[in-house]
Specification:
Order of helices and strands: HHEEEEEHHHEHEEHEEHEE
Bound molecules: adenosine-5'-diphosphate
CATH topology of the largest domain: Beta-Lactamase
Largest sheet: 5 strands, antiparallel
Distance between the termini: 44 Å
Strand content: 15-25%
Structural class: alpha+beta
Helix content: 40-55%
Number of helices: 8
Radius of gyration: 52 Å
Number of domains: 3
CATH class of the largest domain: Alpha Beta
Strand order of the largest sheet: 2-1-5-4-3
Length: 467
């Protein structure tokens, strides 16, 4: 993480940025609305005052006492809340009467008068109004209206109106940084909290090593995405652990299996070389050694085939195999052995079956099964081979009436080097079934034991179409 921002920090920045943009847009719209509203209010307020004055002029004449009083009264009423001024000029633009704040800013008054009917005043004719600035950034609004016999003017100092909008803007400017700071802080805490499971996963993964595989990632039970990820990783670790344990067992067994014949050979050699021997004795010793070497080489060969088959079946290897023909070939190969043991080798009428696969691998599978069936069936027994096709799968059953396999051994016999009732001198090394199962798996099929109490049924399922 060094040199780069953490996900938490990045999300906090993005989140704060997004909030800043949103709040700014919102505040801008609000400011524009308040501004427009106050502007409108100021114009309506001034227009009403000037309209009152125009009405008094209409009623009492422009240069009467009553009109003058009306002007002073109107200014007094308005000035309670706002700075306001009103004045009247005669036809020659000579000042007749003036009241309110206008007295302090007489020099600011324009002398041009627009041609507008008095009745149009409240329609907010833009021509009636002009805006001026008296400093301090507070503009005033001037309204000039022609009246009977002269001109009426109204003046409104807009301080109160402008202040409302300005206060709003200032409040936003002062509070925004603080608000952003709070949001950034809270966002960071929230992001950190929700990223904690990822940190736990990383820490656990760092602790896992070849000698330290028991670690599991804690799950919260919330069933959210991170919890699901933790569960998936734990399940993956279970599979890795299982694979590791299998590999360890396999290498330990392989080493043990290879060491036994080697030790035996070494002992035999030591004993033979202890003293002078006759040629017959040497021949016998060499014969024993030859037997052990064959056993050893069978073991090494089996291991190599197993490693090869675990890599899977390549596309080039896959051809259409005549399964029935292959089964006939295998059984006729073992016929002499079966005859020797007086075992009946029974092959049912096989329907024509074709499966995609490697003929030599499939040959090995069925040779192992038929050989085992003969090996583990006492004299006078029967070994039979049947085949059929069900739902796109070929099923081959190799059945014998032999010694059978205890249910608790049903899965273990497929583990490398596992031999039931381990008699190390018995022919075979305990790799036949694991190899056969791997070879069938490489074809996308399955090999299982379905044995009863009398004898064993090995069932091979092979797909008849490539996956
Ligand atoms: P191997 O035959 O070389 O010992 P396998 O892997 O072929 O090795 O078989 C493993 C073990 O399974 C054998 O040692 C034997 O105990 C048992 N087994 C295999 N096939 C049969 C069978 N048809 N009947 C009884 N036991 C069998």
């Amino acid at each position: 993480m060094t040199g780069r921002l953490s996900i938490g920090a990045r999300w906090t920045l993005r989140f704060t940025g997004a909030l800043l943009v949103t709040v700014s847009i919102f505040a801008g719209i609000l400011y524009a609305q308040v501004s427009a509203r106050t502007q409108h209010d100021a114009r309506v307020f001034l227009a009403l005052r000037v309209k009152d004055l125009a009405t008094a002029v209409d009623r009492d004449g422009i240069d009467s006492e009553a009109t003058r009083n009306a002007l002073i009264r109107s200014v007094r009423v308005g000035e309670a809340d706002f700075k306001l001024g009103l004045q009247l000029f005669d036809e020659n633009r000579a000042l007749l009467v003036r009241g309110g704040s206008l007295e302090r800013h007489p020099q600011l008054l324009p002398r041009t008068v627009p041609e507008v009917e008095p009745s149009a005043v409240l329609a907010e004719q833009t021509a009636l109004f002009s805006e001026h600035d008296v400093g301090e950034n507070y503009p005033y609004l001037l309204m000039t209206l022609p009246v009977e016999g002269g001109v009426a003017q109204g003046f409104l100092y807009q301080r109160q109106f402008v202040r409302a909008a300005r206060d709003l803007r200032n409040q936003f400017l002062y509070t925004a940084p603080m608000m952003l700071l709070i949001v950034a802080g809270m966002g960071y805490l929230l992001a950190r909290g929700s990223l904690q499971p990822i940190k736990d996963i990383t820490a656990t993964a760092q602790r896992i090593s070849g000698t330290h595989m028991e670690e599991t990632i804690p799950t919260s039970g919330s069933r959210d995405e991170l919890d699901e990820l933790a569960g998936t990783l734990n399940a993956m670790m279970d599979r890795v652990r299982e694979g590791f344990a299998r590999t360890r067992r396999f290498s330990a067994n392989a080493a043990h299996e290879l060491r036994t014949p080697l030790n035996r050979m070494r002992g035999r050699l030591e004993v033979t070389l202890e003293k002078e021997r006759t040629p017959d004795e040497y021949r016998e010793a060499l014969g024993d050694l030859m037997h052990d070497v064959e056993h050893l080489s069978e073991g090494v060969h089996g291991l190599m085939r197993l490693a090869q088959s675990e890599a899977g079946l390549s596309d080039e290897q896959r051809v259409d195999v005549d399964l029935s023909g292959l089964l006939m070939e295998v059984t006729s190969f073992f016929e002499p052995l079966a005859d020797e043991k007086r075992i009946t080798l029974d092959v049912a009428d096989l329907p024509p079956i074709t499966v995609p696969g490697d003929p030599s691998w499939l040959h090995q599978v069925f040779a192992n099964l038929v050989h085992n069936a003969i090996k583990y069936t006492p004299e006078g027994g029967t070994v039979s081979v049947e085949a059929a096709v069900h739902a796109g799968d070929a099923t081959v059953v190799v059945r014998d009436t032999g010694i059978g396999i205890a249910p608790e051994e049903a899965e273990r016999i497929f583990e490398p080097f596992h031999r039931v009732g381990a008699k190390p001198d018995a022919p075979g090394v305990g790799l036949g079934l694991p190899l056969a199962r791997e070879l069938v798996r490489a074809h996308g099929g399955a090999l299982n034991l379905m044995s009863g109490s009398d004898g064993s049924d090995f069932v091979v399922r092979l797909p008849t179409r490539s996956a």
